[in-house]
Amino acid sequence: FGEHFFPVLILLGFATRFSALGLFGMTLTIQLFVYPDAYPTHGTWMAILLLLMAKGPGVFSIDHLIAKRYR
Question: Which phi and psi angles does 14 have, rounded to 5°?
Answer without folding.
Answer: -120, 125
